[in-house]
C-alpha cells in the first residue's frame, strides 16, 4: 500500500512540475513568422537592387545612369559583407549606450538554432533571418546618401566614405535606437530598470522608431546634405539644364521602392500578426495621402502636376510613416501623409532654393525633412486618444498610460541626436576621404559623364 501511495505522490509532483519545465523550455520560432520575415527581407533587397538605383538613376543625366546603378549596388553588397563581419555585433549586442560589443563579430555563435526576440514575450524568430533583415537596412541606408553627391563623386571616394559612415554613424545610431534585451527581460520594475540600463541611449530616453525614421532617414538625409556642401556643386549647376533623363525609370524605381517598403515597415514588426497588418495599412495610406498632397500643392503653385512630383510625394509619404507605422492609426497615417507631401515639396523647392546647395536628388528635402516630421508626429499620433496604439508596458503586460508631452521630448532627443551625430561623422569622414583620395572627379571627366570615365560603359547606345 505504501508503494502505491509513494507512486501516486511522485505522479502528483511530476504533474505539478510539468508546467515549470515547459515554461523553462526555449520558445520555438513560429513557421509563419519565419516565412514572413524571409519575404520581408527579400522585399527590402529589391528596394536596393534595382529599386533605389532606378529611382535615382532616372533622375540623373543619361551619361551618369550606370554610375548611380553601380554605386547603389556595390555599396549595398560591400556593407552587407561588413555587416556580417562586425556590423551586426556592434549594433545588436550589449556594450555601452552608444556601441555594442564584438561578441558576435564574424557572426560568432549565430547558428540555425539561435533565436532573436520579437516584441512579444515568449516569441522568437531564427537569428539568421534577423541578421539578414537588419543587414538590408544597414546596407541600403548609406546608399541613400548617393543622391546628395550624384554625378560628380569618385567611385573610390564614395566607397571609402560609406565604410566610415556605416561604421561610425549607422551602427551606433542603430544601437542607440533599437538595441534592448528583449521583452522577456521585463518581468518586474526592478528587472526593467536593470534591462533598460543595458539598452541603447535613445531607447533609454524613450524614443520610439518603428522602422527607421531616425536610424535611416534623418541619419542618411543630413549626411547627404553635408556631402553636397563639401563636394560642391556640379559643373554648370544653375546655368545648364540638368533635367532627369528618364522619368519612366524613376517611376519604375519609385514603384519598386513602395512595394519593397512593405517589407521594410511591416517586417520591422518581426511577427505576422495584427500589428503587422496595422503597419501595412498605415504605410499604404500615408503614401497615398502624400502623393495626393504633393500633386495638388504643385498643381496649385506651378500650374501643372508632374510625374516627378507625384513619385517624390510617394517617397515622402513612405519616409514620414516609417517611424510611426506600427504606432499610429489609419487616420493618423493619412494626416501624416498630407503633412509630408506639402512639407517635403517645400523642402525640395523653397528650402533648396534658399540654401543654394546642389543636393542632386533631394536627399535632404525628402529623407531628412520627412524623417524629422515623421519622428515628431509619431509622438503625437501614437496617442490612443488619436487612434494610436500607445506604448506597451512590458512589466504590466498592457498598454501604458500615454503622456504626449513626455513622448515628444523623447522624440526630440531622437531627432537631435541623429542630426548632430550623423552630421559630425559625415564632416569628418568626407574630409578624411578628400585628403586621402579626393572627393570628386576632374571637370573634364564630369562633363563627359561618369559612366564612361569611371566605369568604361554607357547605359545607352545611339
UniProtKB/TrEMBL annotation:
Looking at the record, the residues that make up the Ammonium transporter AmtB-like domain are 35-460
Supply one GO CC term from the record: plasma membrane
This protein's record includes keyword Transmembrane helix: yes
A Pfam family of this chain: Ammonium_transp
Keywords, A to Z? Answer: Ammonia transport, Cell membrane, Membrane, Signal, Transmembrane, Transmembrane helix, Transport
What is its membrane topology?
Multi-pass membrane protein
Compartments reported by the entry? Cell membrane
Residue ranges spanning the membrane: these are 34-56, 68-86, 128-150, 157-180, 210-231, 243-264, 276-297, 306-324, 330-348, 360-382, 408-430
Q: Which domain of life is it from?
A: Bacteria
Query: What is an example of a GO molecular function annotated in this UniProt entry?
Result: ammonium channel activity
> Carries keyword Transport?
yes
Q: Which residues form the signal peptide?
A: 1-22
Please report which protein family the annotation says this sequence is part of. Answer: Belongs to the ammonia transporter channel (TC 1.A.11.2) family.
What protein name is recorded for this chain?
Ammonium transporter
